[in-house]
Amino acid sequence: MNPLANFLIKIKNASRVKHETVTVPYSKFIHGICSCLLRAEIINGFEKKSKKAGEEIVVTLKYTENKPRISDLTLVSKPSARKYIGVNDIHPVKSGFGILVLSTPKGVLSDTEAKKELVGGEALFKMW
Asked: MF terms per GO, please (predicted)?
């Protein structure tokens, strides 16, 4: 299965049932996405842990007024159909209440960070 889709579904489901943390398999790509979500204040934090079976990332979810910070998300790019966006084509998600996460030459960035850095890239997912 697609590791990005697996990661996002785990986070979405855990936030809906109000879990405090989620554990996902480690990869540099998922680590970059967690860093982006932390900078955008979507999650409270994350930590890389080593186990006998391999490495994992433990993501601490964020709630505001007992409501999950993640209400919904949609995958933009899929392994079979990649979507690339130029810097001039980046628009606010849900009138600025959501974020678009992009994989750029400067790393995994949110839509506002990508505009500041003047880079486009592969649109990974939208979250609000």
From this structure: structural constituent of ribosome
pTM of the complete model: 0.91
In the predicted model, residues of the chain with pLDDT beneath 50 are none
CA distances from 17 to 21, 37, 39 (A): 11, 19, 24
Instruction: Classify 66 as helix, strand or coil.
Output: coil
Domain ranges of the chain: 3-127
**pLDDT on residue 40:** 94
By CB atoms closer than 10 A (0-12, 13-18, 19+), residue 59 is: buried
Q: 6-15 as b/e, with b when 16 or more CB fall inside 10 Å?
A: ebbeebbebb
